[in-house]
Amino acid sequence: MKINGTPYRSVWVNEKDGWSVHIFDQTRLPFSLDILRLTTQQDVAHAISTMQVRGAPLIGAVAAYGLALALRQDAGDTAMEQNAAMLAATRPTAINLRWAIERMLKALRPVAPQDRVAAAYAEAGRICDEDAAQNEAIGRHGLELIRALAKSRPAGTQINLLTHCNAGWIATVDWGTALAPIYMAHDEGLNVHVWVDETRPRNQGAALTAWELGSHGVPHTVIADNAGGHLMQHGLVDLVIVGTDRVTRTGDVANKIGTYLKALAAQDNNVPFWVALPSTTIDWTVANGVTEIPIEERAASEITHVAGRDANGALTRVQITPDRSPAANPAFDVTPARLVTGLITERGCCPATEAGLHTLFPEQ
């Protein structure tokens, strides 16, 4: 995707700078576009755990490069396994992280230690290329849903979409998942408008999704997290489309906290609720998302404090709760498959059921 006309991916390697890994610091957006240079696996682990880099597909790709950086220090079997385990433990909910590390190990274990660094960079590069291609395919399949909506309305009617959190190109290697169909619809000339949930407590919608859509010229409006149901009641949402950090083989969906409530409101108001994901986000080992998917509990300070820009243009944090009030901060919730209209994958769309997934992925 492009920033001010310049094409970027969300992660890239600088071969002339010690094969370092570069990412955008997502904690600084939308007010500052800062590029981080990562040179060790500790740098990568810190960036993932602090959410300087986030988004299920992207953290898997960055973690793959993190293992390549680790091998530059020690390419032996023991160190490789230890560093892989450390990277895989940085965040528990998104399955892409574990998938990418396991894929890297499978590719690297048969390789002689002296050849592992080159092999690791090559495999991480393939993971990135595949993610970009998968997300572009997701965009094409999701575009058909928006086209169908447009064809069912008088010509030129505005199509109102609602999304939660950030599932755009900054959350993947390129294109995004939930936002990819929206970009394609806009570029095709369809009259789309996006309701952007703020997504408390870290406000990824207000900060990242709004920044992405604005940079691309897509009409959008930022709303409070709890406004979505009201808009649906008044016929102002035609389609909900979100991303996900893990999908079970039965179609349950783990996504940013608050997604479940949007799905309930959508069902109550007969609004289609679609989830966009690459197949790397499917956890074929899990059947019940509510009981089996680990939910990350993040720092209470994300609830008690809010970050933003003050009147002087400086980035700052302010406290919004009483001194002695405790806070709980589950980062994700699980939307049961019964509330999901369907899944959009790189192979097409399907019902959010085990049978539906197997029609697209019979090898599983």
Automatic annotation (TrEMBL):
Pathway: Amino-acid biosynthesis; L-methionine biosynthesis via salvage pathway; L-methionine from S-methyl-5-thio-alpha-D-ribose 1-phosphate: step 1/6. The lineage of its organism: Bacteria, Pseudomonadati, Pseudomonadota, Alphaproteobacteria, Acetobacterales. The record marks 165 as: Transition state stabilizer. Catalyzes the interconversion of methylthioribose-1-phosphate (MTR-1-P) into methylthioribulose-1-phosphate (MTRu-1-P). Also catalyzes the interconversion of 5-deoxyribose 1-phosphate and 5-deoxyribulose 1-phosphate. Part of a bifunctional DHAP-shunt salvage pathway for SAM by-products. It is an enzyme of class 5 (isomerase). Substrate binds at residues 54-56, 91, 204, 255-256. PANTHER family: METHYLTHIORIBOSE-1-PHOSPHATE ISOMERASE. This is Methylthioribose-1-phosphate isomerase. GO terms for molecular function: S-methyl-5-thioribose-1-phosphate isomerase activity. InterPro entries: IF-2B-related (IPR000649), IF-M1Pi (IPR005251), IF_2B-like_C (IPR042529), Initiation_fac_2B_a/b/d (IPR011559), M1Pi_N (IPR027363), NagB/RpiA_transferase-like (IPR037171). The keyword Iron-sulfur does not apply. It comes from Acetobacter orleanensis. It comes from the Bacteria. One of its GO terms (biological process) is L-methionine salvage from methylthioadenosine. Belongs to the EIF-2B alpha/beta/delta subunits family. MtnA subfamily. The active site is at 245 (proton donor). Pfam families: IF-2B. Keywords: Amino-acid biosynthesis, Isomerase, Methionine biosynthesis. Its EC number is 5.3.1.23. It catalyses: 5-deoxy-alpha-D-ribose 1-phosphate = 5-deoxy-D-ribulose 1-phosphate; 5-(methylsulfanyl)-alpha-D-ribose 1-phosphate = 5-(methylsulfanyl)-D-ribulose 1-phosphate.
